[in-house]
Each structure stands twice: as structure tokens, then as C-alpha cells.
What does this fold into?
Amino acid sequence: MFRFILIHGVLTVGVSGALLSQLIIHMTGNGSSTFGIVDSLVVFSFSGAVWGFFMWRERELNRKFPKRKTSNRKIFGIK
It folds into this structure.
């Protein structure tokens, strides 16, 4: 669980989101400081960890209770 959250949440979503947001702020000319980069890394990493936890939980639930495969034909009554 910890490894999944760290890799997929914090590093993939959090850090990349922080770097992307700071790049956009810098490119638009609103200014970027070292303190802003540190703040965005902390906030985005935390939100990435939360996102990673929910994705891990969803993955584990899908493993325990796999979804039934239903065709769209059955749902819409098409033969």
C-alpha cells in the first residue's frame, strides 16, 4: 500500500502536478519564488497521497469483488 501511494500518488500525481503548476505560473509571468515551489510541492504531494490512497483502495476492492461483465446488448434489450 505504502509503495503504491508513494509511486502513483506522491511522485506521479503530486510532484508532476507541482512542477507543472509552477511552470505555468512562471510562463504566465505571475512570478515564481523558491518558497512558492516548496509550498506547491508540499500541497500537491499531500493531495497526491490522498489520491493514491483512494486509487489503491479502489484497486483492492476491484480485486476482492470483480465486476460482472455485462454486454450493452443486455442493458439496452438488443438481440
About this structure: The radius of gyration is 19 Å.
